[in-house]
Amino acid sequence: MQLLGKYEIIAEIGRGAMGAVYKARDPLIDRLVALKTITGGPSAQSNLLDRFYQEARSAGALQHPNIVTIYELGHEKNTPFIAMEYLEGESLDRIIEQRPVLPLSVKLGYIVRVCDALAYAHQHNVVHRDVKPANIMVTKEGVVKVVDFGIARLTDMSMTQPNMMIGSRAYMSPQLYKGERADARSDIWAVGVSLYELLAFKRPFTGDSEAELMFHIIYEKPEDLMGQSPECTEELAQIVNKMLEKKSDDRFQSMEDLLHAIEPIWKAAQQATVSGLLADCQELVVAKDLQRAHALLRKALHIDVGNSQAKSMLEKVSVELRRSEIQPRLQEHLSRGAGYLKAGQLREAKAEAQAALGLDSKHEPAHKLLAEVDAAAAKVQQLEQKLKLTKQRLAEGALTEAAAALGQAVELDESNLQVHELKKQIEEERGRREKRKKLGEILHRARTLWTELNYDECLTVITAALQEFPNDPELKKLQESAKTDQAELQKQRQMAEVRRLLGQQNFAEARKILDVLVAEHPQDTAVRNLQNLALQEEQEQKRQKRLDSEVTALRGLLGAGKFKQVVIKGEPLLQEFPQEYELKELVN
């Protein structure tokens, strides 16, 4: 790799009669730099080389945002060089060649920044001497940088090709052609020529030869700028004309004076341009064309960096633009999170909600999902506590306390599998206890009826009990004893008993007796008719009891504020019992 001093040469980016400019890298701090070399004439003449160093040091002492920064002045073998700030962008002469459509505010902004830089340099007793569009850089970010301070003074015109001489001399003031010393007013002239060229896309003074160019600069006035540039106002044309006065004393005497005259025009142009851009942005925002609105707002701030309205709009559009860009990702996180939440995978659901908030910390649906996940986690913790308590009480045989704890668990999550399993265990244990108690009571009653010779009722009780306890030996033994004592009138007594039980709506007992009668008298029409009647009345009673039970349950849910469950359970009932007024009132 080729080196110049400590710098690693990357590529040549320019070459002229005085030397070349390279893109290079400072390996110590990994910084890109531009290396400008001086070869040929200056390096061969020690007095010019001394002046090169002296003036380069003067330029290097300038620290201004619109002046290229000089990092180092060096000498490698026979090649003096200057290491300076590397600029990515275009020179103003390239921009002029392209004839872009630029607002007046942008063009004036370039010149105002140049004037700011030169005013600073003049305050530090440094005159540029070679101001021209080629020495004005506009970076990709729109920052204006003035380059090549003090280098023009070193140029030995006798060694410069005629075209190169004319190209640089087109910006020289009359006093420089007359051999007078360069001062701030010669820089003002050069800025005036550059501004004219930027507005009209042509130079104010031209010539086919150096002599013709010099004659036009010293003696002739430029063409009317307003005729060359439609955007140029009379006030601006007067300023340019004053910058191009032949006599130095008739021009602006300082860059500060020039800035005082040109800045109000620039500000007004800025305001007009930015106002138009902001109006266009408003329409684009309404049309949801956020990309174009964002680009226009950046352009507006490029023109007027301090415009508060543009800054505010850009901030809002940027937020909305980012939201629109991340919306699909947000939706993916929320969708997955909701799915995980529904499946009870709370850790995964929380991770998805937090990922969504990482994209947009103010996204309300994401906050809502996170709150739901946290609530579900708290609910799971409470549920686990209630289930643990239920198991403990069940193991202790305390069914009432176990059922109470399980009831609280049901309120938290009635679809939980453990809840259903524990409920089943409690019910089974309760059923076993009730069966043992019931069997004892049935046996006691049956024996009493048997000893009282009340065989019909005794067998009815035993028959019903055998359906529930089919393998109980005591019941079977008692049944056999009662049957042997039963007489022919058993049938009539049984039927009479059935009728009595039906009148009492004791359908379970009546059905048990009828089952026996049907088995014993399968062809008896009266027995069959009595059985059908019992079934019809029992079904109607069960239907009514179920309705009463469901209505009572709905009242309980309504009282507990569980309206959604009332609707979910009530609507199917309404389809089955459409005429029940109380049910309608509860559901509606």
- Please report the total strand number as a whole number: 9
Mean pLDDT across the residues is 84
Let me know the CATH homologous superfamily of the domain at 89-272.
Transferase(Phosphotransferase) domain 1
The number of distinct helices, counting runs of at least 4 residues, comes to 24
Query: What global shape is seen?
Result: rod-shaped
Euclidean distance between termini CA atoms: 87 Å
Work out the radius of gyration.
52 Å
Task: Enter the CATH topology name of the domain at 89-272.
Answer: Transferase(Phosphotransferase), domain 1
Class from helix and strand fractions: alpha+beta
Q: Helicity range of the residues?
A: 55-70%
Identify low-pLDDT runs: 151-167
CATH class categorisation of the domain at 89-272: Mainly Alpha
